[in-house]
Amino acid sequence: MDRLPKIALPVIAVIIVLIILISKSAVTIGSGEAGVLYKTFGGGVVTDKPALGEGFHIVAPWNRVYIYEVRQQEVFEKMQVLSSNGLEIKLDASAWFQPKFEDLGRLHQEKGESYVDRILLPTIRSAARSVVGRYTPEQLYSSKRDAIQQEIFEETKKIVDGQYIQLNEVLVRDVTLPPTIKEAIERKLKQEQESLEYEFRLVTAKKEAEKVTIEAQGKADANRILSASLTDKILQDKGIDATLELSKSPNSKVVIVGSGDSGLPLILGNN
């Protein structure tokens, strides 16, 4: 009986050590995450193998796993940039991005966990300054918002693609101009709109006048053609037809006593 405690103590110690080792060796990677393995005695960051995916993993207790979010993320940035004529513009933008899963080891080794602050944000700022500097405040305020957004995206993507970052979209959320410039642009746009409306009214009036002229010309041409086609015989026949119709009227007593100078019957008398 005295020997049992002496045997049990080493077994318990071994079990405790195993539990500690397993707890330090077990790594659980959550949904939308991936792990970069760092081998303390095996060359440091593992870059020639895929990152550790979601789920439970056992690694040597002397190694370490750095966990990264690999789902799409969003970062916001407020910037002050200059337009083509040197005016200060405030730009609010955001970027949708995610680290490239297949290059996660290299990203960790070369850029580190702060890659957003070290690489992505400075690149967005640089691209925004370059792009906005090509446009006037009027263009920024009105018609070029989509073009600016696309150009910032393309210039940023061209750089960060080589830095193991996948850029999905850049969104320009707000462009703020100096108040005096904004008011001047709004007045100019209003004047341009009023001018366009006035021109439209002039064009409409001109087209209406042309329509009336064309209709009048058509009637004149029709009358000329009709006059040219009427002969004395046709006029006489028309007159006879009209006289016969008039003679059928119940309100008139028609007496035909002869013909007039034109050769048409004469109608005398009515009630």
Automatic annotation (TrEMBL):
<keyword id="KW-1133">Transmembrane helix</keyword>
<dbReference type="Pfam" id="PF01145">
    <property type="entry name" value="Band_7"/>
</dbReference>
<keyword id="KW-0472">Membrane</keyword>
<dbReference type="InterPro" id="IPR000163">
    <property type="entry name" value="Prohibitin"/>
</dbReference>
<dbReference type="GO" id="GO:0016020">
    <property type="term" value="C:membrane"/>
</dbReference>
<protein>
    <recommendedName>
        <fullName>Band 7 domain-containing protein</fullName>
    </recommendedName>
</protein>
<keyword id="KW-0812">Transmembrane</keyword>
<dbReference type="InterPro" id="IPR001107">
    <property type="entry name" value="Band_7"/>
</dbReference>
<dbReference type="InterPro" id="IPR036013">
    <property type="entry name" value="Band_7/SPFH_dom_sf"/>
</dbReference>
<feature type="transmembrane region" description="Helical">
    <location>
        <begin position="7"/>
        <end position="27"/>
    </location>
</feature>
<feature type="domain" description="Band 7">
    <location>
        <begin position="24"/>
        <end position="189"/>
    </location>
</feature>
